[in-house]
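[Meeting: bench + compute handoff]

Bench side (C.D.) handed over the final construct sequence. Compute side (W.E.) agreed to return the predicted structure before the next meeting so the bench team could plan truncations. Sequence as handed over:
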Amino acid sequence: MRGTQSSSPLAIFFLVFFALLAVTFGQERKNYVVHLEPRGDDAGADSVETWHRSFLPEATLDSAADDGPRIIYSYSHVLSGFAARLTEEEAERLRNREGCLRLYPEEFLPLATTHSPGFLGLHLGKDGFWSRAGFGRGVVIGVLDTGVLPSHPSFNDAGLPPPPKKWKGACDFKSIARGGCNNKLIGARAFGSAAINNTAPPVDDAGHGTHTASTAAGNFVENADVRGNAHGTASGMAPHAHLAIYKVCTRSRCSIMDIIAGLDAAVKDGVDVISFSISASSGAQFNYDLVAIATFKAMEHGIFVSAAAGNSGPVAGTITNGAPWMMTVAAGTMDRAIRTTVKLGNGQEFDGESLYQPRNNTGHQLPLVFPGPSGDSDARDCSTLDETEVSGKVVLCESRTITEHVEQGQTVSAYGGAGMILMNKAEEGFTTFADAHVLPASHVSYAAGSKIAAYIKSTPKPTASITFKGTVMGSSPAPSVAFFSSRGPNKASPGILKPDITGPGMNILAAWAPSEMHPEFTDDVSLSFFMESGTSMSTPHLSGIAAIIKSLHPSWSPAAIKSAIMTSSDTADHAGVPIKDEQYRRASFYAMGAGYVNPARAADPGLVYDLNTNDYVAYLCGLGIGDDGVKDITNRRAPCAHLKPITEAELNYPSLVVKLLSQPITVHRTVTNVGKATSVYTAVVDMPKEVSVVVRPPMLRFTKVNEKQSFTVTLRWAGQPAVAGAEGNLKWVSDEHTVRSPIVIPPANAAA
């Protein structure tokens, strides 16, 4: 009978095909970071890589039959483990191996994407602090980013000595014409996709790495500008420091495997400072955060790590790179604007910004239209336009993300628009960008945009003009905190104030490597300098400033350098009033950290709050992540067995976060005298009247340099607890120094 006949050849084919397909997908290899237990003392003389290979199945070790080696990186300095390509079956078997702590599937982290030296008080002249500090001479800054353009004049080595004797790094620029390593660029390596071809050097293919490297330590370049805007002498914060480049990102993607490999190499090579303009995971426990684990080892090697806070503000709790052994950097503005002015048909004027400054613009009034007043979000932000509605007109568009402003203008131009007014959303407040628009444009605040939108509704024939005024110095208020700068508290450790500090991160002019990723201007003119904004830009400012301090004080620990930067920072703007946030309200410490960096004062702080590895371990032991969690970070066996755990508030940090309830809380701190041998400091407390703060002893007397003295701070509510929390400062004041520590009492409903 037909029903009992064997299956047709076609049916058998499909059965076999899908079975093979299932096997193929099951055997597809993916990239993992494999975190191992610390290597035992009885491991023998085998190399680290041999030890790592012992964790892989024999079949996995044979890579001849497939698409590449199984072990991608063997980490030796910042992580006990390796990166490998594994099938799901192999990964599961490895998870169950004794000595394997955890497997992390490969993830990609985003980049956190000049006048600033002068704005920060760094001026040329033999009597200035900058020159006295030697411009960072002798210090090596390792930059993890998208590579660098070695031929750029910012990386000339005029005035620089040879690399320090401790330097062990390599340079992969040997085959590059018109540029390579020198006494400025002393090392350069590529990881990941950039290193698949062994001859591929770490040349910047995005512009970002060249920008951040030159911000940290670019040498002096006269007559720098972007199309005549922001003209002057460009330099980094530490123009005579050395640079080591670790290309761990391609375009805008940064593989966690490559990042750990870059950090591993930087520690091995002997850098003094790491500049990390990459956003790590937000809120992950430190023992699940590979960047936190790797930078802990960097700290143990005496390396200062400056890291981006992230660009997810102004939402609370969005901070990244929040481990206390890293300096977490927020982004602020400066007092320079690339000015445009919008004039409406009724005579109202509103200032904005744009890097595109056409010289032949007449400023004539043109018809003005807002495509989205009815509430259509796609129309409001000019994602969808009607050519008959916008052609020949100035178009009001609501801002999308900070990376899409130029694209919005391109859309307006494509539909025949004559100009664009880009207005902020409510949460973006007064933060405006000088972007390289492709048509006459002006980026205005939410307040200005709302008035322009109201004007459009008020008249049947609205008109507007845009005039271009070039570079304007002295704009105010300045500095302020940029809206996009990620905010605290840090979810992984809310008892440590994050961010730590704010630096210049808005409209920063620095060296540039042209790329397809950034079309810049439509006439394809190659630019040597460009403006970018983000915590990516503020981070290398702090890297360079840390290098200057390290050059002046080579024996200082990373914690001492961080303390010097935080306790000397400014909480008042250039007009002498409290620094504001993007809404022009008083900025909280969760927005700006301790304050806005002041390099000259940071080099001579008077006192520092120092920390060593055991202090951090005691803090981790009290963090509630368990002994195993602490071991994952520290690579120590039984790390909490011989240390007394401490609370977050007891870590000798330069700021204090105290979860104050009904009972008083007392915390301890220790300061080290790094100023004059004989000096006297008096405690001055600035807190709201609802909070009582008692410091004992109220006076500290020092008789020698590096002398340590301890004190206690007792806090209690003087009346009813404030649901909104409170902020203030503890200052140790001498004849020559004011050493200020922020005090934060979080809101009652804040995460514990």
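W.E. noted at the follow-up: The longest strand covers residues 463-473. C.D. will use this when planning the next construct.
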